[in-house]
Design goal:
The complex is a heterotrimer. By secondary structure, chain A is an all-alpha fold. Chain A is 80% helix and 0% strand. Chain A is globular and about 55 Å long. In chain B, helix 1 runs antiparallel to helix 2. Chain B is flat, with a radius of gyration of 15 Å. By secondary structure, chain C is mostly helical. Chain C has a domain of 153 residues: Four Helix Bundle (Hemerythrin (Met), subunit A). Chain C is 75% helix and 0% strand. Classes of the chains: A mainly alpha, B mainly alpha, C mainly alpha. Chains in contact: A-B, A-C. Chains A and B meet through helix 1, helix 2, helix 3 and helix 6 of A and helix 1, helix 2 and helix 3 of B. Chain C: This is Cbb3-type cytochrome c oxidase subunit I. Chain C: Pfam families: COX1. Chain C: InterPro entries: Cyt_c_oxase-like_su1_dom, Cyt_c_oxase-like_su1_sf, Cyt_C_Oxase_1, Cyt_c_Oxase_su1_BS. Chain C: It is found in: Membrane.
């Protein structure tokens, strides 16, 4: 069922896809740089990684994919003109985004309490750089979700949800590399 | 790229059971990858399993959440790119798979 | 020419070309000082010559942008410029300011004076009164073109062009802060010049290029606009955090090395997209526009910008590489081809397109202009190769083996001679270009045969 081809086949706003590709590129290169620098000190990286709070991060994965589900649901509702449900789903998605940020904040606070900063070890420089940059996107995404819950044209919700799924996708790429591969 | 994608034949608009299935699949896959890290098997196998699971998750997000199931060529292209990315990550990891 | 107020552009182009001549002659002098270091060392020290060379470049490029805006905005917005008087007043302020800068630099007048003296900085060196004048001129300009666009038709080209010009003016405000800390001074300087050339100027470049493609190839506006948006998004995405590649060695935290390396590497993408855009448009285009010179400069611009800014920039942008090459002739090679490709060629392209229209010499073949393209481009490309070789040798001798700077300079002297030769070719090309723009009147090809209706 191929009606369109090339860039016209991409659903929604083309610029959102330019953003998604750009972000994927940046995080992809960042994560590869992380893995490459790891080779200069594998045991130091493994030791540093053992200080991370994996359970919290795994919980955050569940929070984000659930939030993404709600954002996708919101678009589906909006397309059926169920505007109230769409808005509710968006606000719920944003609320879960806040939960993610709270868990992440607790994680950072724990690191700070242990005296760990971005200067402690190259691992932590990448850790703060990659997760911090991602968290900044979560924060932006929460605001975007609330914005499109307010100005709820279908196109807006589609773009907002796409941004949110991008944040979700990046986390799925980031989480195993930074938290699990030791 | 032959990642399983059990809900491919849903229509793009209208009633979409695919979304809920996708969400549940993502939760199960996340749980599985966390579980894989505590299995008493060598690091190399754990790493491979975790990255394959992550690849499937990425594909589910692309296909369902980002609705690329309606643009198959983009879905396959991006899947190949992400698979290549994880292959590089795995390769870099396997050079020195430090055990914890 | 559809609108009377487009004539404003003519004066701007004249000033820009005048400064262009001064800039390349200054460059030639600087190139000569490289091979004969004592030349004018008392009268006009090298640091002053270099500053004139780089600053006059920036000023003439901006003047050209202003002229280009005054030329294309009436056509895009489909109405006359809001106020012709203000446009001339703006130019007057800029010219007086520029002359003030040159006189203050060369004779070092009012040394130490807060308002009138130069500021003792390497680049944002203009006396305060000139900076204030530049801001006033920019405000006049922005008011003038924004009013025109607001009252007229809004197109993607004018929107992006205005965004770029507003960014250009606002970012200049960083130049007023003059911290005593040298590292901070550099940081604020990059806020101006990096965010210009690797940020908002790319918006200006993309929009002017889009306008030229629209006129020269006759491709649908819709197609051009889609490209334009993608290019602009890629430019801003990579360019803003790409500033990090200037933070490697000025005392900022180490994570900037990674932010800078990753984002600045992506700066290749918008330049590649612009090159792809230009060639795809020409390939798809159905219009055989008689102004081949403008087309040549447009394609040359996109191509040389990709190589000069994109490829040569990437060569030394990764911090692991830049650790060795920073401040060597590699930088000079990149700087020359990037500025020539991206912004000089862009200006020359819009001059080539607009001047025959402004002077009623349309349609126009411009063989001399095309000859000047090949002279300037080949001279600049040769200079880039020569400086790249010099920089590679310099990096090895000075940074790897640890030889003394001046000893190394002697080793690479042959390259500086070749650079002077290529610079001479560029200067001849530049003077030929200016001559071709203003003097010959008879280079007309048969009228009517190739004329196509405007879009």
């Amino acid at each position: 069922m191929k009606q369109t081809s090339g860039i016209d086949a991409l659903p929604g706003e083309l610029l959102m896809w330019v953003l998604i590709f750009s972000e994927l590129l940046v995080f992809g290169v960042g994560l590869l740089a992380f893995m490459a620098v790891r080779l200069t000190d594998p045991s130091g990286f493994a030791e540093a990684q053992s200080a991370l709070y994996r359970t919290g991060a795994a919980l955050n994965t569940a929070v984000l994919v659930t939030s993404g589900f709600l954002a996708a649901k919101a678009l589906e509702y909006r397309r059926k003109d169920r505007r109230a449900q769409a808005r509710l789903s968006l606000v719920a998605a944003a609320a879960l985004g806040c939960v993610f940020l709270i868990v992440k904040g607790a994680e950072y606070a724990g690191k700070a309490a242990q005296g760990i900063s971005y200067e402690t070890h190259p691992f932590f420089m990448f850790y703060y750089l990659l997760t911090g940059f991602h968290a900044a996107h979560v924060l932006a995404g929460v605001m975007v979700l609330l914005l499109v819950a307010w100005r709820d044209e279908t196109g807006n919700i589609e773009a907002g949800a796409q941004f949110w799924h991008m944040v979700d996708l990046i986390w799925v790429l980031l989480f195993p590399v930074v938290y699990l591969l030791g | 790229m032959t990642a399983p994608n059990p809900t491919d034949n849903t229509p793009r608009h209208g009633h979409r059971p695919g979304l809920t299935t996708a969400w549940l699949a993502l939760l199960v896959l996340s749980l599985a990858s966390t579980g894989a890290t505590v299995l008493p098997v060598p690091q190399q196998i754990v790493a491979t399993a975790v990255l394959v699971l992550a690849l499937i998750k990425a594909r589910v997000i692309l296909a369902r959440y980002l609705e690329l199931s309606a643009a198959r060529s983009w879905l396959s292209g991006l899947s190949v790119v992400i698979a290549g990315f994880f292959a590089l990550v795995l390769g870099l990891f396997l050079i020195y798979p430090a055990a914890l | 020419m559809k609108y009377e107020s487009q004539k404003i552009a003519l004066v701007y182009f004249a000033v820009a070309m005048g400064l262009f001549a001064i800039q390349v002659l200054g460059g030639l002098l600087a190139g000569w000082i490289y091979v004969a270091p004592n030349t004018l060392s008392e009268l006009l020290p090298f640091n002053i010559v270099r500053m004139l060379h780089t600053n006059s470049l920036i000023v003439w490029l901006i003047t050209g942008f202003f002229g280009a805006a005054y030329f294309l905005i009436p056509e895009e917005a489909e109405r006359e410029i809001h106020s012709t008087k203000l446009a001339y007043l703006q130019l007057l302020i800029l010219v007086v300011g520029t002359l003030g800068v040159v006189v203050t630099y060369v004779f070092n007048l009012f040394e130490g004076n807060f308002l009138l003296g130069k500021e003792g900085r390497e680049f944002l060196e203009q006396p305060k009164w000139v900076k204030a004048g530049i801001v006033v001129a920019a405000l006049i300009f922005l008011y003038n073109v924004s009013m025109t666009v607001l009252k007229g038709k809004k197109t993607a080209i004018t929107n992006i062009l205005l965004l770029g010009l507003w960014g250009l003016a606002l970012l200049f405000l960083f130049s007023f802060y003059n911290p005593s800390n040298l590292a901070l001074d550099k940081q604020y300087w990059w806020y101006v010049v990096h965010l210009w050339v690797e940020g908002v100027w790319e918006l200006i470049m993309a929009s002017i290029l889009a306008y030229l493609m629209l006129k020269l190839t006759g491709v649908d506006r819709e197609v051009v606009e889609k490209w334009l948006y993608v290019i602009v998004a890629a430019a801003l995405f990579s360019g803003i955090l790409g500033t990090g590649h200037h933070y490697y060695w000025i005392g900022t935290p180490a994570y900037w090395q990674w932010i800078g390396s990753i984002f600045s590497s992506l700066e290749v993408i918008p330049f590649f997209a612009m090159m792809a855009f230009a060639f795809v448009m020409v390939w798809k285009g159905r219009r055989d526009h008689p102004n081949k010179a403008a087309l040549l400069w447009s394609l040359g611009c996109a191509t040389l910008a990709f190589f000069g800014a994109g490829v040569w920039g990437f060569l030394h942008t990764l911090h692991g590489v830049n650790y060795y090459t920073h401040g060597t002739q590699i930088t000079a090679a990149h700087g020359h081809l990037a500025f020539f490709g991206a912004y000089v060629s862009l200006n020359l392209a819009i001059f080539s397109y607009a001047m025959p229209i402004l002077l009623n010499r349309d349609p126009y073949n411009q063989v001399l202009n095309m000859a000047s393209f090949w002279l300037m481009s080949s001279g600049m490309v040769f200079m880039t190769f020569v400086l790249t070789f010099a920089g590679t040798i310099q990096t090895h001798l000075q940074r790897v083996l640890g030889d003394y700077f001046m000893d190394v300079q002697d080793q690479v002297a042959i390259f500086y001679w070749m650079r002077f030769g290529s610079g001479l070719v560029v200067v001849i090309g530049a003077l030929l270009f200016i001559y071709a723009m203003w003097v010959p009147r008879k280079e007309i090809i048969e009228r009517g045969a190739t004329e196509t209706p405007a879009e």
